[in-house]
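Issue: copy button drops trailing tokens. Both records pasted manually instead:
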Amino acid sequence: MNRYFCFISIFTVMISLLSTTISNAQFNEDDLVTRSGINFQYNKQGSPYSLPENMSDELTSFSYYFTPGIGKFFGNGFYAGIEGRIGARSQKYTSLPDGNTTNANSTIYGGGILLRKYFKVAERFTPFVGLSNTFYKEKGDEKLPGQPYSYNQNNFTADLQLGAQYRLSPRFGIEAYYTPGGLLVSKDMNSNQKTDNTSNFGGNGQHFSLGINYFLGKK
């Protein structure tokens, strides 16, 4: 499944990069832009472990985080900027049929860089492909039955973005994008386990985002 999502994502990015011939209009935006977005991620899946036929597990995860940032266009649709990541995650792991549950709640904070390529297909409508590289910390507690556990996790992600922006006015634009996944490197600082490197496509690697852009250079 991960290979399938990886192939689809790479194929989509390649098609997008080749689609610059869709419009003869040159994209020469050069504004400084402030951004404010919110990302959502929801995932519900069965146990990652092999269990007897009369047993099953279920993991439900929901997270959100805000991504304030600022960046600049450099002509021909290229954009580079920095952004923050501030939010929270909640997880619930249920073991059936005994019904034992494990709850985990954490806070997320960090930041990184954002690179994008926009394609002008209409006067107001500009699809884009992007790559965000973010370092963030995740701190929280797992409430195991009779065995609480605190974790302090360092994470690095390199995520793909496939989305579009619509200009409401010379100064304001709205955007939405889908992240099919990317690379996740994580290390629990309270554990002796080694750093975990995961190519994370589909499942808990995908999320959605909505945002507002404000163009500082427009009159």
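Record 2 (pasted manually too):
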Amino acid sequence: MLNFGRNRGQTRSNRSVPYQGLEYVDPKKKSNVVGKILLAATLTALCIFMLKRSPNFNTPSPFSGHEPGITHVLVTGGAGYIGSHASLRLLKDSYRVTIVDNLSRGNLGAVKILQELFPEPGRLQFIYADLGDAKAVNKIFSENAFDAVMHFAAVAYVGESTLEPLRYYHNITSNTLVVLEAMAKYGVKTLIYSSTCATYGEPDKMPITEVTPQVPINPYGKAKKMAEDMILDFSKNSDMAVMILRYFNVIGSDPEGRLGEAPRPELREHGRISGACFDAALGIIPGLKVKGTDYKTPDGTCIRDYIDVTDLVDAHVKALEKAKPQKVGIYNVGTGKGRSVKEFVEACKKATGANIKVEYLDRRPGDYAEVYSDPTKINQELNWTAKYTNLQESLEIAWRWQKSHRNGYGTPAVMSS
């Protein structure tokens, strides 16, 4: 027979001893706990009531709804060199801009400059996120009403891509798929895609036109071509407006000196030749290393088409303006003129006034001898023509920013991919 009474050996003095798996609770302590819970609940309710009385509590974000006469553009990689310049141009042209960047290559300082220039509500917002995180990307699209996407976000160094190919396929190809899926799910109908002349590889003849066969020879170009193919396949059965811009070697900076190029110090080895020239002129590195002097070109160094970043973002805006549903536009963005690396170095010496020491080394893996564009199509269809075509002048503008920003935008935020 079960005994539900007190054990015979138990006395009143040991009530706090655990009994059958339960612990005795002092009624006074229990009332104190209940009182604290009630107080917390009351304070929470009071806070909610006061927030609801606030005029801003129920006001939706201007970024969360479509507004007649205002085009809301999502700029991926908008904290980067090209993306920040594109964001500046869009904001100047009265677009609404949302920047998404994981700051692995971009600079929070560039975003802060843009926020200072355009502080009005509903003009610019920055979201820290990685496009490889599909859940985060879907949340961004669900909470914001985008009219168009300018997709810049990508790692973009040819040499680095040969050393870390999987990183490039993931970052460029897989992440573009995530963006496309979100656009399809949330009905965003316009895409301006930042592609590259690296998708052409090393063509048999120059200049490169939009129908030149795409035979990329490095993981960077291959990953970009894969992303292009995905976009084109998806667009066949959708009413999306697509513009693909394949651009060449970007130089320069904002003519008014607000933005510039500030790559991570550890990436200088893979970076653009302009950055290396400026580092040498500033004494950050002992000299300039030119990789490859035995190419089949007039002076043995690579020939490239150098496009000023101001012209480049102008092409993006014109592409956005001309984008039409169920239409795909593919355009080369370049000057149509090739310049050798040796020519570039001489122009940089004149722009900086520095006697830059030059060291000539073996070829860089994945590079090609000669690449320059035929911009006829974009001239005719988008009414776009490169205006900043004087190499030395573009470098002088960029040099002014570099001299006054020796540490780039300052100490970067502790955020990385």
